[in-house]
From TrEMBL:
It catalyses: Hydrolyzes free adenine bases from 7,8-dihydro-8-oxoguanine:adenine mismatched double-stranded DNA, leaving an apurinic site. GO terms for molecular function: 4 iron, 4 sulfur cluster binding; 8-oxo-7,8-dihydroguanine DNA N-glycosylase activity; adenine/guanine mispair binding; metal ion binding; oxidized purine DNA binding; purine-specific mismatch base pair DNA N-glycosylase activity. This is Adenine DNA glycosylase. SMART domains: ENDO3c. Its cofactor is [4Fe-4S] cluster. It comes from Maribacter stanieri. Keywords: 4Fe-4S, DNA damage, DNA repair, Glycosidase, Hydrolase, Iron, Iron-sulfur, Metal-binding. It holds the Pfam family HHH. GO terms for biological process: base-excision repair; mismatch repair.
Length: 349
C-alpha cells in the first residue's frame, strides 16, 4: 500500500471528533486554521467555539470592532493573527461580496493567509488538490523519508512542499490532508511517538536509522532578547469609595499592538523600590502623594518567541485624582496581554 493509502486508512480509524470537522464552510475552516496556528488543539478549541458563537458569519466578524476581536483572542498570543483575521474578514466582505474565495490563488490574497492556510482551506472546502505543509507534516515526512534538510530554511521549505505534493492523494485530498496532520499530532508526535504501533514502521527511514528523536532538523533560532518591564498600577479611591486605575493602549509595531496595559516603565535591568521611587513619574507623570508597594519580590519571566520579559508590578496608592482614570470594575472589559490578565486575576483589587 502507498504512503498516502496508509495515512488515509489510519485517519479513517483514528480521527478525532473536532467541531470544525463537522463542516466544510470555508469561514469556519479558516477560523479554525488561523486559531490553530502555533496553538494546540486543546487550547484552541474553546477559542474557536467562542468566535463562532460571537461571530456566526464572516459579516459579523468584519463588522466587529478591533477591541472585541482582541478581547476574544486574549490568551492565545501572537496577536497579529487576530488583527489579520479581522482584516481578512473585511476583505472577504468588501472585495468578495461576503463569499470566501474558492481556490488556492485567490485565498492567498487574504491578509494573514499563506501557503499552508490557503492549501488547507482550498482542499478541505473545495477539494482542490493542494498539499498542506505544517509542523506535523514536516515531522512525518522528515522522519519517514529520513530528511535532514532544515525545515526552516529556504531550501527546506521548497523541498518539503514538493515532496508533499508528490506523495499526496489528489483524489481524496480533503481526508488525506487532514489525515497527515492528524497523524503527526497523534501517532508521529514530537515527543514519544508511537513507533511500535505505527502503520509506517516497516518502511520509516528515521526509525530504521535511529533518527526519530533528531528529526525534523531546524536551524538554530534567533538569540532571545531580555527585556525588563516595570508595571505601575496607580490606585485612587474617591469620596464614595470607588476605586480607579489607569490603562494605556500599546501602539507601534512591537509586541501586543493595540492591547491595553498598565503604565509601563521599561528598564535595562531589574529595578528595586528605590529606583522606582526616583523614576515612577516617567510612567505616571507628575503624580504626587503616592505610596509605592512592591507586588512581586522576584521578577516574573514571561516568555515570548524571541523575547523574555522580566516583569515586576508596583502598586502606587495615591490620594490625588488623575486624568484618564478608569473604574476598577471595567478592567476586565479591555483586551490585555495574558501577563496583565493574570495579574488582574491574582491581585483582586
Amino acid at each position: 500500500m502507498s504512503f498516502s493509502g496508509k495515512i488515509l486508512d489510519w485517519y479513517h480509524i483514528n480521527k478525532r471528533s473536532l467541531p470544525w470537522r463537522k463542516t466544510t464552510d470555508p469561514y469556519k475552516i479558516w477560523l479554525s486554521e488561523i486559531i490553530l496556528q502555533q496553538t494546540r488543539v486543546a487550547q484552541g478549541t474553546p477559542y474557536y467555539l467562542s468566535f463562532v458563537d460571537n461571530f456566526p458569519s464572516v459579516h459579523d466578524l468584519a463588522n466587529a470592532n478591533e477591541e472585541q476581536v482582541l478581547k476574544l483572542w486574549q490568551g492565545l498570543g501572537y496577536y497579529s493573527r487576530a488583527r489579520n483575521l479581522h482584516a481578512a474578514a473585511k476583505m472577504v466582505v468588501n472585495e468578495y461580496g461576503g463569499v470566501f474565495p474558492d481556490n488556492y490563488k485567490k485565498l492567498l490574497t487574504l491578509k494573514g493567509v499563506g501557503d499552508y492556510t490557503a492549501s488547507a482551506i482550498s482542499s478541505i472546502c473545495f477539494n482542490e488538490p493542494q498539499a498542506v505543509v505544517d509542523g506535523n507534516v514536516y515531522r512525518v515526512l522528515a522522519r519517514y523519508y529520513g530528511i535532514d534538510i532544515p525545515i526552516n530554511s529556504t531550501e527546506g521549505i521548497k523541498y518539503f512542499k514538493a515532496l508533499a505534493e508528490k506523495v499526496m492523494d489528489p483524489v481524496e485530498i480533503r481526508d488525506y490532508n487532514q489525515g497527515i496532520m492528524e497523524f503527526g499530532a497523534i501517532q508521529c508526535s514530537p515527543k514519544k511517538p508511537l513507533c511500535l504501533l505505527c502503520p509506517l514502521n516497516d518502511s520509516c527511514v528515521g526509525l530504521e536509522k535511529g533518527l526519530v528523536d533528531q528529526l525534523p532538523f531546524k536551524l538554530k533560532k534567533t538569540k532571545v532578547r531580555n527585556r525588563y518591564f516595570n508595571y505601575l498600577i496607580p490606585i485612587y479611591k474617591d469620596m464614595d469609595g470607588a476605586q480607579f486605575t489607569s490603562l494605556k493602549q500599546r501602539k507601534g509595531k512591537g509586541i501586543w499592538q493595540n492591547l491595553w496595559e498598565f503604565p509601563l516603565l521599561e528598564s535595562k535591568e531589574i529595578l528595586e523600590i528605590d529606583d522606582i521611587t526616583i523614576r515612577y513619574k516617567e510612567a505616571l507623570g507628575d503624580m504626587e502623594s503616592v505610596e509605592l508597594l512592591e507586588y512581586n519580590d522576584n521578577a516574573i519571566v514571561h516568555k515570548l518567541s524571541h523575547q523574555h520579559l522580566h516583569t515586576k508590578f508596583w502598586i502606587v496608592n495615591t490620594e490625588n485624582d488623575f486624568d484618564g482614570k478608569i473604574s476598577i470594575k471595567k478592567l476586565t472589559e479591555f483586551p490585555v496581554p495574558v501577563l496583565i490578565a493574570d495579574f488582574i486575576k491574582a491581585f483582586k483589587f
